[in-house]
Amino acid sequence: xxxxxxxxxxxxxxxxxxxxxxxxxxxxxxxxxxxxxxxxxxxxxxxxxxxxxxxxxxxxxxxxxxxxxxxxxxxxxxxxxxxxxxxxxxxxxxxxxxxxxx
Length: 102
Prior knowledge:
This protein is an alpha/beta fold. It has a single domain (2-98), classed as ATPase, V1 complex, subunit F (Rossmann fold, 3-Layer(aba) Sandwich), CATH 3.40.50.10580. The chain contains 5 helices and 4 strands, in the order βαβαβααβα. It has helices at residues 10-18, 29-41, 52-57, 59-68, 86-98; strands at residues 2-7, 23-25, 45-51, 73-77. The chain has a 4-stranded parallel sheet with strand order 2-1-3-4, with helices on both faces. Strand 1, helix 1 (10-18) and strand 2 form a beta-alpha-beta unit. It is globular, with a radius of gyration of 14 Å.
């Protein structure tokens, strides 16, 4: 079982490769879907790391897999151009889950 990266950024791919994680760099929605489909069908892949920008490009496909498939695990990661503020994201998850605003 291994990790697999789907990235929109060569720098992210190179950093992950240094950590022993192979992957692919894609930019267009159809390329993202194809790479994701191939990774989902590969029985050796346990965790798919996908950059935030690519999740936004193909959010319906990504969330469909997340909701309807048990394996592999899909994890959204920020890259060097990350736009989300992790503190705000966690706070919004807590607020929607339990109705408590932090």
